[in-house]
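Data deposition worksheet. Section B asks for the primary sequence of the deposited chain exactly as it was used as input, without tags or linkers unless they were present during the calculation. Section C holds the resulting structure in token form. Section D is free text for depositor observations; keep each observation to a single sentence. Incomplete worksheets are returned to the depositor.
Section A, Depositor: J.P.
Section B:
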Amino acid sequence: MYFDTHAHYDDKKFNEERDDLLRSMNDGGVSLIINVGSSMRSSKTSIKLAEKYPFVYAAIGVHPHDAKSMTDETVPELEKLLYHKKAMAVGEIGLDYHYEFSPRDIQKVRFREQLELARYIKKPVIIHEREAPRDTLDILGDYRDLIGVFHCFSGSWETAKTILDMGWYLSFTGVITYKNARYAPEVVERMPEDRLMLETDCPYMAPEPLRGTLNSSLNLPYIAAKIAEIRGITAEEVAALTMENGKRFFGIGDSGTGIEN
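Section C:
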């Protein structure tokens, strides 16, 4: 069975098939999903999905794209959501210098505010970092007491080693299956197995041979197969170790999984 540690089933692309798709997960070999918030709206929807489906859990946070929309009331509202019994992490939060939908200075302020919240509420963090590794790691240097994961990791081994030396985790998407995946294969090969997690980031980044289609957690076997090839183990072993890693990271036991009719 697979654990999708980063999904976005609140996305409007799933509007026509969300419930049918989620009800198919158990038969498709997926037993756990973290639905990750990227705004106040999606964070609230993540909680609703977690309440409806026993195998879905939530992460609560505001993505750097939406940092400019945050106000002084946002962090207290996030805190309230994070007290829900199925809210397992703060995320996704971080810095994005590729699109810069929010100014960099505002991204940094809101990133720190949410890291402070994670510290206060004692939750792990899910980091979004795009074209901002130096600033992201500089900020995280002030929060070494936190535990976190860099989701959809595609950076160099040097960056990966810095993150791993902090005791943090790395998570990989269908990008690992792409021919132009530049650094990820080396990182997957060299990193310790107890810090590796799987994700789809669905509905985005479907793996080969499904690239360009609507992605879902049902495509995790393609990602696992590629990682297994790189590491010289079986896909079943990848599924098992990433399930264990994900449960440990998010603090999820064996109870509370299954499908609600």
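Section D:
The domain at 147-253 is CATH 3.20.20.140 (TIM Barrel).
The longest strand covers residues 87-96.
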